[in-house]
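Two quick folds needed for the group meeting slides. Do the first one here.
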Amino acid sequence: MRTIFRAACRALCPSVFAALLAACGTAQPAVNPAVGQPQSALRVPSHGTSGALLYVAGNHVIQVYTYPAGSPSGSSNTPGAVTGICSDANGNVFITEAPKKSSHAGTGYVQEYAHGGTSPIASLQVPAGEMPMDCSSDATTGDLAVTQQKSSNYAPSVAIYSGGSGTPKILQTDAIGADPQCGYDDAGNLFVTSGGNVGAELAAGKSSFNTVTLDRTLGGVKHAQWDGKYFALQSFQSKHHNGEIVEERIYRVQVSGSTGKIAGITEFKNWPEKVSGSSWIDGGTIVGTPASELAFWKYPDGGKTMKVIHLKSHMMAVTLSSGS
């Protein structure tokens, strides 16, 4: 398997990727053993540090930086290649990972870290043969949404962990494809998409998705989140993706019923789509992981970077963990 699982998922056709998966070893157990004592996403961590922190993750590694200063504050390794990362209202961090040794029945990981910690406090149950791809926490309930896909055929689904723990409820929708991304808004509505001109919304309190048609066709979405007013989709303009250098964009989407309207586009300099990684929005700042950098821009202004931290390797995901 390619060392960076998410990049491989987007870059390779299904037939080639299936061959890679088949060559990578034995399957993982259906349920990952708990690490430490599981904690609810609504529970204040029993240990941690004060002050906001950036958790940056990539190929089997997590690095922690102070925020906004950007000073190193710890690191650790992960059993699987990181595919996504998110944090909840209490600063707990959740990391989705591919199987350590993938096969047609490989099962990935979802691990939880307390704010300031570099060792997992819990490992969530993952359905057999599923590879978690991304996550988002509902600030209104503490529920954790994890998008996933089967290692055998990339069939997507969404796992909802009530209170951020326990056995998940699995939901499906035809509106998403491989490598689905998700984001909760501040009212508890969940939006998921893989790109193109379609997504799906799970309204707060509902048990099934409503298909949402976008008024523009996007490239593969690499991250979805709520920016305080819109669903912010990190993607690129698909019609311009013909071998030339393509820069990453944030498409701000207003969802109303079954329609998603592009309300604005944030453009960036020096953020190539080919090695884009993902991003996290914090008010008027957006932090991204282009190539082997941790870059800061104004949001929604975009343009030139405000600050860049050079990393040892390309990181695939970043989240902001608030202080407790």
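Then this one, please, same format:
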Amino acid sequence: MSDTGQGACERVDLAAGEPGAALGLLQRESGKHRPPASAGAVGVEGSGAGGEDLVLQHIPFNFGHTTEKVAAFGSGEIAMAKYYAFEGVLSMNMPREERWAVVNRTYRPGAEVWGHSNPDLFETSKVTGCPLYFTPGKYWPKDIAQSYFGNKTIFGMLRDPYERLVAMFRGNLGAYGGWYPEFIPTCDVNGAVRKMMTDYLAGEIYAKECCFVPQAEYFDAPFGITLAVDNRRFPTSLNEIFADHGYTDLHIETEDILHVTGCPEVWAGDLDCETKALVKQVYARDFELLRERFGYCDQEENCCIEGVPLMCPSNLDEKRKTATRCA
């Protein structure tokens, strides 16, 4: 998951059994439902609270799962438990129609079906080999892209490349973002990020569920992000956008955020100049987008997300004094 940890409650183990049995863990809620697969529509209804013009392009490891969870189930501990159960069910091998049935029976009234919670986006991209929900919109089949994005404002989080790669190392999630057992015991974030970049440059462009695809590709037309969310200010930045667009029932609280927890004292400032040079080579367009959209012009700046628990070292002030800066 995008910066996922254990969250507010433990995951529900739904690996065994039938989807119907697992759904017993989820309360059925009345109200607005998503259209069934046979209707050929995707998420066409808005939030029911005035907002209906946004649609999420999920960039991996940019808090997309947190955003989808709050859009689907709201905030709080009960919403978190429902989300974990829901994710377990959707991960089972089932037809698209059955996934839509799960959505229709579990989402809260007025929910948005965004990103990897949307059954129509489980198709594998012929370009990337990743599910559509992690693939840049420009590579989606046109009919699915038009149905999902439509004429809505496409939003997505834009994250500092150094900090984002540090989070992937700290997550150590295997198929999603990578698994780095040789670097974990000593929390060698520099060695892990250097390996990520050398593997990418060796041709592993779409590896690990497309986590290493430059964020800029998710901004490319057609069906690219037009509304960038400053991930450095998450969740405040996204809550401001929800409010501005009339989504009065969507608000991400601190306890809603799924985030990494491993090696909590490492950060972007621990990357050496050689590793940072590789990151700048791979993510040149991402740094340019950060400059264009948010005015972050210093490519040597070391940052972390201070509004999210455990995303900054406990001794951040001291870390800043000794952090690596390259010419």
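Slide caption for protein two: The chain has one domain: 19-322.
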